[in-house]
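tool_call: predict_structure(chain=1)
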Amino acid sequence: MPKRKRQTRSQSSSESDFTTEDSDASIDVESDDNPGSRRVTRGSAKRMSQGDAQEEVKMEDPGSRGRADEHGTRARSSILHPSQRNQGNASPSRHGNNATSSESESEGLAEDTGRRKGLKRTAKAMSYYGSPPKRHSLGETRCPMPGCDSMGHFTGKFETHWTLSGCPLYHNLTKEECKVRAADRESKQKVRDKIKKEVKDEAHMALRNPSPTRSQKEYKDKVKEQRKVKPVISEEQKEKARQHKKTHENNREPLLEGLTSQYDLDLFREAQARAAEDMEKNAVFQESEVQQGAMFEAGLKTIQFGRFELDTWYSSPYPEEYARLPKLYICEFCLKYMKSATILRRHMAKCVWRHPPGDEIYRKGSISVFEVDGQKNKIYCQNLCLLAKLFLDHKTLYYDVEPFLFYVMTEADTTGCHVVGYFSKEKNSFLNYNVSCILTLPQYMRQGFGKMLIDFSYLLTRVEEKTGSPERPLSDLGLISYRSYWKGVLLKYLHEHKHDREISIKDLSTETGVNPYDIVSTLQAMSMLKYWKGKHIVLKRQDLIDEYLKKQANKPPEHKAIDPNSLKWTPPVITKR
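tool_result:
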């Protein structure tokens, strides 16, 4: 039977279909000598798969099936990790012969065609899970840790890394120490596997109430003995931790030695290693999906924002071509969003922004606040709203930003002013809303920045000689933050006016800037408002005031707070057109 001439449709499609990203990086091609590094578009990938399926239907003889297996092997090698592509492309015929010899000639055409439909996803899994990658493509992604050469891995199983979770330097370790810890974890896992094997024994599990085995009892006693040893933090360790924090700030993991028992510390390190390994697997799998132009129906999962990799909480209406990606790369200064780390790296080499646009109206220490007009800096404010929607459920404002002012809080270091959070307010609010939307980015939560933003919004309200309230509905975290702030403001006011016999809600609202409705709801939540003889009476609960004063006294000296004297701001005059 004469052999049909095979059309190299996939090669022509992959060489002709390129997409341009933006003005920063027109075509994401690393080198013309390495065709495997080119990013294939979704349309070309679809045509490639359709062309392969049509050729499979036409081939019925065993010889053509062998050639199809050879083509499938080449497709598998095209999505291998960059460090394995040369090995995969060296001898494709050898892999194709092995695949042909392993199949039975009795398999029908329907079964073979069905196997081809799942080849694409199966090959991706085989490309990683078959043999872990030894080296990442450093030309594509690099570790965001300053001073790190991307060599080594926290798990001790890889030669390179590209995330902070896998960076040995971030965890205050060396490559060699990571490998030693990996060997130690493997030996401990063998002991656990041995104990599990005894537990799963059929004779033991046949009992109605199986008692712990001897190995389980010995292991439990061993853990108890190790946890009995309570560490004592010496002054030398405290000074070392302070120097470490002062030297590296937030660029390194805090020193953990002496905080808990050695067993619990090793358990925490093991959990860190497992999480880092899972992130590494997901990153490799997602990279192969993007190179093949696959569709991600689940949408955006993570973003790279500066040196932080953040998991998204909600969806955001980014353009469709960006919203379908599993990961988005955002410049932390101008907030421009990009598709890949290569484009972000090229953009950062040319980006001249190091702080938000607008006027700096507040500065104390490393904390600054910038007032950004949505009409003057429309693109920046739109990108800020799109970023905020990833972490807010009730946000509806994305593109209509002209009627709003944005107050962006930043934390400065040697590289620039990094966005901590922001709040927006209408230029003309008929309901006296002093906040339309407020957000603290996840990496800065639980550090006091949320209350600083709320306090700053009420500071502006007091300067304007008004009373204000946040726009409803509030998110769950927003409601908790505002209730906590209102409670602190009211208790502080009651303590400062403890000698006054009469206190009115109106005076309290005027001095604090808080809306009377919010004051009444907070007093009711604290059971400090009572209706007696036709009047509402504010009850002074000394226990709550003492608890508030105790918390204030226990706060560290570096506690973050807004200083009204550091504000340099005049209320804007809004003219109607």
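agent: Residues 440 and 450 are 6 Å apart (CA to CA). Proceeding to next step.
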